[in-house]
Specification:
143 residues, 4-stranded antiparallel β-sheet
Amino acid sequence: MTPRARIAAVGAIVALAATPVAAYAALDEAPAPTTPYVETRLYFGTERSDGGPPVTEKQFLAFVDRRITPRFPAGLTIQDGRGQWRDANGTIERERSYEVTLLYPTSEARAQHPRIERIRTAYERSFGQESVARADAPARVDF
């Protein structure tokens, strides 16, 4: 076997061994069954556009309890963050932020969309925000 053929053969073996099927076969386990979900991430800033005091953790968690939890009682994840974005005036704003992750079955996406939009609008109005960013992505989930 030529050196080039050996390199190709080793590369093919490594590629096959790295696939999930090969990994599960090596472990003699089947992959966990998953369901198609949507993962929605909402990004909440804390600096107010009117120059008022930043949204406190207590205020944010009260908002979550009042506006998000009733719409997503099955659960959610909150992460503290630091973010930056360009405001309507072109200024780069840096601020403490919160990321809320919501998971829901794809079959519920149409029904969840207006609920999520009401959350975004409520936060913007309650805390003087220009926007609440939203990112949606497909996910495979098992609980």
